[in-house]
Each structure stands twice: as C-alpha cells, then as structure tokens.
Design a protein that fits this description.
The complex is a heterodimer of chains A (656) and B (307). Chain A has 656 residues and is an alpha/beta fold. Helix content of chain A is 50%, strand content 12%. In chain A, helix 3 (36-58) packs across helix 4. Chain A is elongated, with a radius of gyration of 34 Å. Chain B is flat and about 85 Å long. Classes of the chains: A alpha/beta (656), B mainly alpha (307).
C-alpha cells in the first residue's frame, strides 16, 4: 500500500529531460490556467487579440471624422470615452488603435525572435569565432539604453509604424540571441544530446529534435514578457510623436496628443492609457505564469511544500495530555516526554514524530538512528527550537532543556534559550555557513550576543574557538570566507560556532555524512574530545550504525516517527531486540568500516507519513510477526526488555 | 587585476560604439549641410558649410574629428543653436541625473521593504497586495502614470508643480513616477531571492546563536540578496537614463532625454550623435561599475575569475 502510494504521488519533475511532445504542450496550457495569474493573463491576452482583430468592426463611429462642434467632450452616451481635440470619437479610436498598438508589439517581437534565436542557437552550436563575434555584437548592442537605441533607429529611418517595429525589434534581438544561446548551451551539455551525437545523429537533427523543443518553453516565456516591454517602448515612441503618425490612432500616439489637454480634459489620457497598461499587464501576467513553469530558477519563487504532494491523508488527532514523569536525581540536559510533532499540510496535520520519550544526562551522547523520513531530523530540529512553526506543529508532549521548556516560547525567551543552552551542528557545513560573511564575523556574532566583551576580547575568543576545533593559524583564518576552506574545515568552523556560547546541549544532524571517511573520523574524534572537556550532552542524528558504535553512549532507533528500541549502545547493537534494529544490524557487515545501506536489505519501503498501517508501524516489513493478530491490533508500547526499552509485543522471542 | 582586465574589455566595446554612432551620420538620408543651411541657401553657402563641417574630408579624418569633438567643444556644435554640443549636454545632465538617481534610490528603498514584507508574509493579504502592485508597476507605461499624476497632484490637488525643473518641488513627481518600475523590480527580486534563501541552513546556524529574527533576516538573508540587487540596480539605472527621453517629455524637464527627442524631431544630427554616444558611455560605465561592485560584494567571485 505504501509503496504504491509512493509511486503514484510522485509528480514528474523533469524540466529538460525528455523532448516535448504535442501532449506536453497541452499540459503546459493546463499548468498555465491552473495558476490564477495565468488564467487571468491568458483570458486578457485572448481578449486583447480579439480586440485587435475585430476592433475596427465594433467601432460605433468613424474614428477619423472630425467634428469641431463637439471637441474635447467628457464621456457620454453618444461618445463613451468622450471626444478628442478634433471632435473624433475616442472610443472608436481606441478600438481601431488596438490593431496598430498590438501589431507593433507582435511585429517587434517576431522580428527580434526571427533574428535573435537563430543567431543564439548558431553561436551556441558552432562555438569558436562565431560565438565570440555574436557575443561581442550583443555586448555592443546592449551598450545602448533600449529606448535610446530605438530612437536612434527611428531618427535614421524616419518616424512611421513600420520603422518603429524595426526599431523595437532590433532592440530585442540581443536579448533573444543571448537567451537562446544560454539555453542551447545548457541543452547541448546534457548527456542525452552527447548520446545522440555519438550515435551519429546529424547536427540538423539534433537541433530540430532536441534543442528547439527544449528551448521553446523558455523562448515562449521570454517572448511573452518581452511583448509587454516592447509594447511599452513602441507606444513610448508613439507618445514622443515618433511612432504611428497622426491621424492614425495608436494608444501611445493618442497619449502623446492628450498631454496638451491634461488640464482641461483628463479623460483623453485615461482610456488609451488604461488599455495600454492593461495589455502590458495581461502579457506580464501570462509571462509570469509561463516562467513558473519553464524557468527552473524561478521555481524557488513558488512556495515550496516538499511533502505536500507526497502526503495526503489526514493525521489522527493527537491528544495534548502530556504527563511529565517525576524525575529524580540530577536534571538531565534534555528531557523529552511523549513528544508529538506534525507537519502542517494542506489537508491538515500529518504526524511525523509520535510519542517520543528521551533523556540525555550531561556528558552523555545519545544517537538517534533511523531511515530517511523516520522523523529523526524533525525531532532534532524541534529540540533545537528551530522547527519552523509554519511547517511543523507540536501537537503534544514536552521538551525540557536543562529543566526549561522549549515549547511555546516567546521570541525573546527562545533566543535566550538558544543562546545559553543549545549548539547545533548541521549535516552540510557548506550550506550552514553564510557564503558572503567572513568566518570571523560569523563566529563573533555568536560570541558577542549576550556579553559585553570589547572587540579585542571577542577576537581573542574567536581565535581560541578556532584553535579548540583544531584549526591552526586562527588569527589569519578569521578573515577568510567559507569557500576558502575544505569541507572538513567548514564543519570544524560550524562546530566552533556551536561551541561559542558554551552550550549544555549539542545537537548534531548527521554531522559527518557529507564528509569523506578520514575527515569523518577526525570530526568525530574532535566532537568526542570537546564533549569530554566540556561535559556537554550530545544528541546526534545519523543513519550510520558504525558511527553510533564508536561514538555514542546510548542509542534510540526510530521507525515511522516512534522510538522502537532505546538503550545503551553496547546492548542494543550487540543483541538487538526489535526486529527493525535487528534488520538494520544485519544489513551492516560488522566492523568493516564502510557505510552500509540498511534500506536495501530490509524488505518493503518505509511507510508514508500519515499513512501508517494499523497496529505496529513496522508490521508490513517485519520478519517476526508471521501474521499474528496482536501486531495489527494496537501499537506495541515500549517496555523494558533485557535492559533496554523495546516497542514490540514479541521482544522476548529468541531471547536466550 | 580583475579591474584592469574588465576595463580593457570595455575599451573595444566603446570603440565599436563610437564607430556605430559616427556612421549614423552617414546613414542619414539627405545632406546635413543642406539641412543646416536651410531651404533657401545657395550652393556656395552649402559648400561653405560643408567645408566647415569637414564633410569633404576623407572618412577617417571625419571620424577623427568626431572623436575630437568629445573633448573639443568647438568641433561639435548644434545645428539648431550653434552652441557646442558639450555645453548643451552639460547644462542638462544634472537634471537627468537627479531624476534617475532619485528614482533609483527611492525604488531601492521601497522595493527592498516591500520585498521583505512579501517574503515574510507569504500567503497573506500583504503578499497578494504587493504581488498585484508589483505586476501593475512593471506593466505601467510611465508616460501614462506621469500624466495621471500630473492631473491628480498638479491640476486637481495643486500640491506640486506640473512641469519644469526650477525648484526642488519640480523633481518630486518625476522621481515618484520613475521609481515605480525599479520598486516593482527590486520587490520581486528581493522576494524571490529571500524565499530561496529562507530554506538555507546558515539562517538556522544564525538562529541557533540566539540572534533575533530581524537580525537573521537583515544581516544574513538580505545580505545575500544584495549581490543580485546590485546587478539589477545597474540595469535599472541604465534603463532610467534611457527612460529620461520619455520622463522628461512628460514632465517638461530640460534634461538630456528631452534634448535628444527634440534633436531627433528637428534632425539636429550632432546633438543626436553625441547624446547617444554619451548614453552609451554611461551604460558601459554603469555595467562596469555593477560588475566590479558585484565582484566585491560576493567573496566567492572576488578572486580570479575567468570571463
């Protein structure tokens, strides 16, 4: 069930992977209409095009007939948009003007497309001197402000509708050429193109079959957006009196004429401008909608909800009746009781962390292990108070850090808690450091907050932190930027930042999975060393059992958001009691320092969040259940078995 | 080192630009000397003018003269006013620059604020409002918006003067109007950029330090968007200098753009040539400055880059 759901819910995210088919074009249209701005834009564009085609037929008056008895009249029943300085009907002139105005836009974009695209494709295809020449020409053409360039062309050719089309077209040629060149280059670099070429496909065939269909989306987007700006520049020339010549109506020209009467008759400027702005808006809306579909870079602009597509079913309502157990002895560095976390999805809450209990005493290390999607990272982020409240809801339970609650805090209390007690080390050190700030600035920021050290003392402390994490020559390195360090060094810097405020709890989210094996060892040794010196509690999230064996004191195995086995590392890993832990353990060749891939060896797939099977979540993949009804009836509670907590009805089985 | 290479790259571009602008003169249908002399001039008069303009000299010499006109005002004079083109330009340039720089700065401020609001309040009323406004902003013909503003603020409310450039108040409307496009551009850019940045781990690193959300956004997220904003600012500034041909017509500002439009309508070729050349030089310099600033702001590209 879960496996099937996993495949059906995967939306195809192929941007340039396959050549476009006719079917895909219709799906493009459907995706445009699915967006509100796409629907509005497309409707308006169609209306405007209809206006350009049928406008002259609809005009109630002769747009050229002058009537000096009725000049500069306000809108009335006879003249809906009023009359102009020569007594002509403005409504009729606007309708007729649509053809000239939009025609200039269409003509200009077509001109630019026909010259620019072949030029760009040619440059990308032939490379060498042709490419160099085209790029230089583009450089030169882009050295003129576009409207000034168009103005210069009109100055040479004379003012007329046709010359305006040429002028605004020429101005857009370099934009088309540059874009076509860039996208063609990226398509040509795709492995499947190289594949076709090596199979002996002719250049013409590659261009026609592979390149053009794949760049068409980008070019369509660009054409639409350029249409809007071309329309505005062309009408701008008209406004300056250099476009369509009177008495022919064009919206820009009409605006230019209305300028002299803005004091006495503002209506004259209102309507042509409204139509002009509306048409530019229509094309911009449509272009924007197209861009979200065809431009991979702008996909970021669309709100990302990665799990939305994959997760559908509503989570079961979670109770909020947390009962913290009375604890005795020293307060643990972190204490989590019955914690429930849920993703906020469109359809409701999807529970990802289900009734998790854990404690870490100062100086101890707890490793949380589990497959991707088991909820371990969400758990860590919630403890770090870094879970985004817009995405993750705490639906029950408590988190105490050094005895203080980490849930439902005011912003200032949360900042205070983060500053005093928590340090976080992320999986990917490269993205955990701000690329545009020196590492000195980034460490100093952590050192400075909440203290009143002077600049020299802050610098001194930063240097100490760097040497604590084993970075030599710290004074000089403080002035360097993240990209100047290797991956292992970056992770050391991230650790230095985490340590800057002497945290009681260090949270590490797969701190070594992005590093190569030797560096992993160094980073782990460093973390262990620092922990011993400072007596911090460490919570480390990982899927690497070898790491757990060497580094952690305790281990909690997570499956589908719940802890299924939790105890001392020696006990849990040497003689696992939960069938999932056993499967994980069996998937790794003991002691052979390579990272195993437990997923491959465990049958079935991890369940989708919010689509858990009834009863024990592991039941569909379990080797031990043998279809016994208990497993399907209820979720097994965690009980003490052989010195650790196990959530399995049959944990005693096979116990010697 | 990068600076020198980048400067060296700009020189050939400028050279080609100057050649292109120069040849506009030759491409123009008709004889400039005849146009200058007027319809009633005799052939001798035209020859004298032709000689004075250097039109009888070989092509290369004329190009040399054209280039010489860049620093020697006596070579290049307006057909219309017979004053040095350099003087005409110098008188009008401040007006153009005030409007363009004012519009850019205002657009940058408003755009960044609305972009941040839009990114932080996703899905809310503010986001919807700002999205509609920015799309309208980039679709708005500024000559129409200008006319509407003149009607509202100058004619109807009588708060501001309608046309001219004699007092600071004259610049308020043009700057407000010209700022719409950069505001919309910056707003969209900052929103897209921030949304992309918001998911980055380094913001969580900053939050984990106990920094306030404001500081996280301003110092870490926005700092990264700045690089992109600077390159857009360069393009927008160039666009606004070019757009001055329209703005200055709408608001009747005696600036370089207005000068160019008048020169085009009256076929004052030396003015057209040198004005366009000046715009092109400005454009190349702005691109150069933008490139250098982007380089400097982004440490990743600060070292040897190979383009």
């Amino acid at each position: 069930m879960s496996a099937a759901a996993g495949t059906t819910n995967q939306a195809p995210e192929t941007g340039t992977a396959a050549p476009a088919a006719a079917k895909q074009r219709w799906s493009g249209l459907r995706r445009v209409v699915a967006q509100p701005k796409g629907l509005v834009g497309l409707t308006l564009v169609v209306l405007y095009l209809l206006l350009a085609i049928f406008g002259p037929l609809l005009a109630p008056h002769d747009p050229f007939r002058q009537d000096f008895a009725a000049t500069l009249k306000a809108p009335s029943a006879a003249h809906w948009f009023g009359t102009d300085q020569l007594g002509r009907d403005v409504f009729s002139r606007v309708l007729i003007g649509a053809r000239a105005t939009l025609g200039v836009g269409v003509g200009g974009v077509t001109f630019a497309f026909l010259f620019g695209v072949p030029l760009g494709v040619l440059a990308a295809w032939r490379r060498g001197w042709i490419d160099a020449l085209v790029m230089r020409v583009i450089d030169v053409m882009l050295s003129f402000p576009d409207i000034v360039f168009a103005l210069a062309i009109v100055a040479v050719l004379g003012a007329s509708t046709q010359n305006v089309i040429i002028a605004v077209g020429v101005v857009s040629v370099p934009i088309f050429a540059r874009t076509a060149r860039a996208v063609t280059l990226s398509i040509l670099a795709e492995p499947y193109i190289e594949g076709s070429a090596s199979l002996g496909a002719s250049p013409k065939r590659i261009i026609l079959r592979h390149v053009l269909p794949n760049i068409s989306g980008t070019l369509l987007t660009l054409s639409t957006l350029l249409f809007a700006s071309t329309l505005l520049s062309a009408s701008g020339l008209g406004f300056l009196g250099l476009g369509t010549q009177p008495p022919n109506p064009e919206w820009g020209t009409m605006l230019g004429e209305s300028r002299s009467y803005i004091r006495s008759n503002p209506y004259l400027a209102t309507f042509p401008g409204l139509f002009l702005a509306g048409s530019a808006l229509a094309f911009n809306l449509l272009g924007d909608a197209l861009r979200t579909i065809y431009d991979p870079a702008s996909r970021h602009a669309v709100r990302k909800r990665p799990w939305l597509g994959a997760l559908r079913r509503k989570a079961r309502p979670a109770s909020r009746d947390a009962k913290p157990e009375a604890t005795t002895g020293p307060a643990p560095a972190v204490s989590v009781r019955d914690l429930r976390l849920a993703f906020r999805a469109g359809s409701g809450l999807l529970e990802v962390v289900r009734a998790v209990d854990l404690d870490i005493q100062p100086g101890r290390t707890l490793a949380v292990v589990g497959e991707s999607g088991s909820g371990k990272t969400t758990l860590l982020r919630a403890i770090a108070t870094l879970a985004n409240p817009e995405q993750v809801a705490v639906t029950g339970g408590t988190i105490l850090i050094g005895g203080e609650s980490a849930i439902d805090l005011t912003p200032s209390a949360m900042m205070d808690l983060r500053r005093r007690k928590i340090g976080v080390v992320f999986q990917d050190a490269a993205s955990a450091l701000n690329p545009v700030l020196t590492i000195g600035a980034q460490i100093a920021e952590a050192v400075r907050i909440g203290t009143d050290l002077d600049a020299a003392a802050v610098r001194q402390r930063c240097a100490e932190l760097l040497s604590d994490v084993g970075i030599s020559d710290p004074e000089r390195r403080l002035a360097m930027y993240p990209h100047q360090f290797s991956g292992g060094m970056k992770q050391r810097i991230v650790i230095a930042i985490a340590l800057a405020q002497d945290p009681q709890l260090l949270l590490a989210d797969e701190p070594t999975s992005a590093l190569d094996v030797t560096i992993q060892q160094q980073i782990l040794a460093l973390l262990g060393d620092i922990q011993r010196k400072r007596g911090m509690a460490v919570l480390i999230v990982t899927h690497d059992l070898n790491l757990v064996a060497r580094f952690a004191d305790d281990v909690a195995v997570m499956y589908a958001g719940a802890i299924v086995e939790h105890g001392a590392v020696a006990q849990v890993l040497d003689s696992p009691r939960h069938p999932y832990t056993q499967a994980l353990r069996a998937a790794i060749p003991g002691g052979a320092g390579r990272r195993g891939k437990p997923l491959d060896a465990i049958g079935g797939e991890p369940p989708m969040v919010g689509m858990l099977p009834a009863g024990c979540a592991f039941r569909p993949r379990c080797q031990r259940t043998h279809g016994r009804p208990e497993c399907g009836r209820a979720e097994p509670p965690a009980e003490m078995v052989a010195g650790r907590k196990v959530a399995c009805f049959f944990a005693q089985e096979g116990l010697s | 080192m990068f600076i020198t290479r980048r400067l060296a790259m700009a020189v050939p571009t400028l050279l080609v630009v100057s050649v292109l602008v120069f040849f506009f003169m030759d491409m123009i249908p008709g004889d400039p000397a005849q146009m200058l002399a007027g319809p009633s001039a005799t052939n001798e008069e035209i020859d004298v003018i032709r000689d004075a303009l250097g039109l009888n000299q070989p092509l290369l010499t004329r190009y040399g003269l054209f280039i010489k006109g860049l620093w020697d005002p006596s070579v290049a004079t307006s057909f219309l006013t017979h004053r040095p083109v350099a003087l005409e330009l110098a008188e009008r340039l401040p007006n153009t620059l005030i409007v363009a720089i004012g519009g850019l700065v205002l657009g940058l401020i408003l755009g960044v604020i609305s972009g941040v609001v839009c990114a932080l309040r996703q899905g809310g009323v503010a986001e919807a409002g700002i999205t509609v406004l920015t799309l309208t902003g980039i679709s708005m013909p500024i000559y129409w918006l200008g006319l509407l503003c003149i009607w509202l603020f100058a004619v109807h409310l009588r708060w501001l003067p309608a046309a001219g450039a004699s007092t600071p108040a004259h610049f308020v409307l043009p700057i407000l109007v010209i700022a719409t496009r950069p505001t919309a551009m910056f707003s969209r850019l900052i929103t897209a950029n921030l949304l992309e940045t918001m998911g980055k781990d380094y913001l969580d690193t900053a939050r984990a330090k106990g920094l306030s959300e404001t500081r996280v956004i301003v110092f870490h997220a926005l700092r990264n968007s700045l690089v992109a904003a600077v390159s857009v600012a360069g393009v927008q500034f160039g666009g606004m200098l070019g757009g001055s041909v329209i703005t200055e017509t709408v608001f009747g500002i005696p600036g370089v753009g207005r000068l160019l439009v008048e020169a085009v309508t009256r076929s004052d070729y030396p003015v057209i040539q040198y004005t366009i050349l000046m715009f092109a030089i400005f454009f190349v310099l702005i691109n150069l400055a933008t490139d250098l600033l982007t380089q400097w702001l982004d440490p990743r590209t600060r070292e040897a880059r190979t383009t």
